[in-house]
Amino acid sequence: MGRIGEFIDSLEENILAFLLALMTAVTFSQVVARYCFNTSWGGALEFTRVLFAWLILFGMSYGIKVSSHLGVDAFIRLFPKPVFRGFALLGATLTILYAALLFDASWFGGLWGLENRGSTGGAYDYVAKFYKLSMIGMEDLKFPLWFQELFGVKERVPRWIPYLIMPVGLLLLGLRSIQAFWQILSGKREAMIAAHEAEELVEENRDVLKDRD
């Protein structure tokens, strides 16, 4: 499991780095094309928005894994450690519930005997509907001509492809939250958030400040 875990960690980091690099490259190339050659790619803005959405929705689970999400824990740290751990477990539980509800909320309505009043059911059902209606494409994002001819696809990129990150990102968020819950319960982790970040930065740079004095 050690090698598998390292591979998954490396894969997540590489995907995030690739998305950020690609978004930066597209934006930079459009600036050069517009101001130097008086031309641009019509789908660049929409493509950048898609990459940014992928970066956020994929990165939120990675943020839980490395405890980079910011939070305020000044109040709950006033309580004894067992109570603080209870609050941390509650936070992880609510995050799991949040991911489950956004992934598919139909089970929640059925649990309480509530009728579905026009709700799509969640991200999974939302993307599934666009998959069935694959003729609905993005506004400006189009496949290259050579790609259309090679694979016989339509001009516009189907909308379900960029939207696929919604259920995938929520699924990863839920899995990472379950992992964090177990780590908190077993004592391997204190909380889900990055606590006392300012204090840690001051401690790390204390020697640097002394040298300057």
Give an account of the 3D structure.
With 213 residues, the protein is mainly alpha-helical. It contains 10 helices and 2 strands. The chain has a two-stranded antiparallel sheet with strand order 1-2. Helix 1 (2-37) packs antiparallel against helix 2 (44-65) and helix 2 runs parallel beside helix 8 (165-185). The longest helix is centred in the first third of the chain and has 36 residues, at 2-37. The protein is globular, with a radius of gyration of 22 Å.
Summarize the entry for a quick read:
The protein has helices at 2-37, 44-65, 81-103, 106-111, 123-132, 145-151, 160-163, 165-185, 197-204, 206-212; strands at 137-142, 156-158.
SSE map:
Layout: H1 2-37, H2 44-65, H3 81-103, H4 106-111, H5 123-132, E1 137-142, H6 145-151, E2 156-158, H7 160-163, H8 165-185, H9 197-204, H10 206-212
Antiparallel strand pairs: 1-2
Helix pairs in contact: 1-2, 2-8, 3-8
CA radius of gyration:
22 Å
Q: Supply the number of helical segments.
A: 10
The string of secondary-structure elements, in order, is HHHHHEHEHHHH
Helix % is: 55-70%
Uncertain spans: none
Q: In one word, what is the shape?
A: globular
| Overall number of strands | 2
The major sheet is characterized as: 2 strands, antiparallel
Determine the mean pLDDT: 82
Structural class: mainly alpha
